[in-house]
Amino acid sequence: MLDKNGIAKRIAQEVRNGWYVNLGIGIPTLVANFIPEGMEVEFQSENGILGMGPFPIEGDEDADLINAGKQTITAMPGAVYFDSATSFAMIRGRHVQLTVLGAMEVAQNGDIANWKIPGKMVKGMGGAMDLVASAENIIVAMMHTNRAGASKLLSNCSLPLTGVGCVKRVVTNMAVLDIKDGAFHLVERAPGVTVEAIKEATAGELVIPDHVPEMDIS
Amino acid sequence: MIKIMAIAKTIEGPEAACSGVKNGMTLMLGGFGLCGIPECSIAELVRLGVTDLTCISNNAGVDDFGLGLLLQKRQIRKMISSYVGENDEFERQMLSGELEVDLIPQGSLAERCRAGGAGIPAFYTPAGFGTEVAEGKEVRDFGGKPHILESALTADFAFVKAWKGDSAGNLVFKATARNFNPMMAMAGTITVAEVEELVPLGTLDPNEIHTPGIFVQRIFQGDHYDKRIEQRTVQTRESA
Question: Per the CB < 8 Å rule, is A130 touching B85?
Answer without folding.
Answer: no
